[in-house]
Prior knowledge:
single chain; two-stranded antiparallel sheet
Amino acid sequence: SKQVLQLYRRGVTPATVLETVLLLREHTRHRARPAPAMAAGMARTLLAALALLSLVAPAAAVEVCKVVDLQLVTQTGEFFLAVTFLGMGVTTVVFVLMAFKAAHEKRKFYFTTCYITAISTFSYYAMLSGQGWLITPNCRQLFYVRYVERFFTTPLILLDLGLIAGADTGMMAAVMGADMLMIFGEFMASISSGHIKWLWFVLSLMVFAPLVFVMVRGYRSLVERSHPAVVEMYSKVSWLAAITWSLYPLVFIFSEGTGDWSPNFEIMIYGVLDILSKAVFGFILLLSHEGLDRITNFKSFAPIHETPMSYGGMQGQAPVESYI
Length: 324
């Protein structure tokens, strides 16, 4: 029995263990016993091996983490999830109402920002409902739905910054694609262990560093040619995004990385960063009316009703389109 257990712990499959036992028995006892005794001995050995494997195999396949070693979210973490969910939900409703009242030229900023907070609201509702999580190899509860949310919201934040800066479509697509790659690397680091975890983390940081440079320098060089109101608005939202995004890797190191921070404290810190990087970001952007007016060339001071001009330059005469 001890030899069978040692073989199984070394990674030998149950079928190989049984085959080895039968071959050894047949080789050592084939000439020492008559046929009936040999058959009875082999039967007893086979039954003992099957019984031992039936007791050991399920435990070795299922028991990954002991219950006492699990790091799970408690009621404290659920409280912070509820607070962040309500904050994101109320912010989304406010942004939607603001979008309907905004001018048509500026609605692209409102809709993009609405999707950022709306996706985050759905993510926090999933976490609050006990969905979208798994147990990592480090016996820690991980809400992988958080990375699904970032995979969509962080590119939208970069889209807002690119629209403010007036970047071309190709550049914005490249920056958003790099951001998705960074989030994927961070997710792989969160579900890995050992040196593989930190290798994924370093790869993610290698993509993250150019993104910060684009936010604070690349796009900023395009904004410098704009109106001072646009420069001021971009400076506020870009530095807010750069600073809050730089804190996410630090939280990862002490939570998903080393496990020094409890899952409850991790949820609280991530909730504060999400509120700042998404809700506060959106309010600063959408309440910068002069900056948005300058970007979209929208004249908020223009009268609503104006006499249409004809193609001939005569005022008060109906345009050509009215006769078609």
